[in-house]
Design a protein that fits this description.
Elements lengths: L2 H32 L14 H10 L14 H10 L14 H9 L6
């Protein structure tokens, strides 16, 4: 095998790896779109902000499986709006009277 053949074979292998990774990513996305709780089976290194948003939009309590660094205000609000029991998984620094009211819990300090 000469260098050109080796390079061609190596390129084909790399393209196949990329195609396989894309298929796996599509499977993850489809599973989470079907059932938000499927997020628990996705390794943290593959959890993106978009994938976590999809999960909490479908099932608010799947916030439990969102990595701490992705538990940002908008994802947590969406989760709580979808399912008020998701509040248990919201980091304490994001919980405020205003967020609870705006988060769709129907809690108002004036009631």
């Amino acid at each position: 095998m000469d260098i050109k053949e080796f390079d061609d074979a190596h390129r084909r292998q790399e393209v196949a790896k990329i195609q396989n990774a894309m298929k796996i990513e599509n499977v993850r996305k489809n599973l989470v779109e079907y059932c938000g709780y499927a997020l628990q089976y996705v390794p943290n290194e593959f959890k993106s902000k978009e994938l976590c948003e999809t999960a909490v939009n479908i099932s608010g309590s799947s916030l439990k499986y969102v990595p701490e660094e992705l538990k940002i205000d908008d994802i947590c609000q969406k989760a709580v709006q979808n399912d008020s029991s998701a509040l248990e998984f919201v980091p304490l620094h994001l919980i405020s009277m205003e967020n609870m009211y705006l988060g769709g819990l129907g809690f108002s300090p004036t009631r």
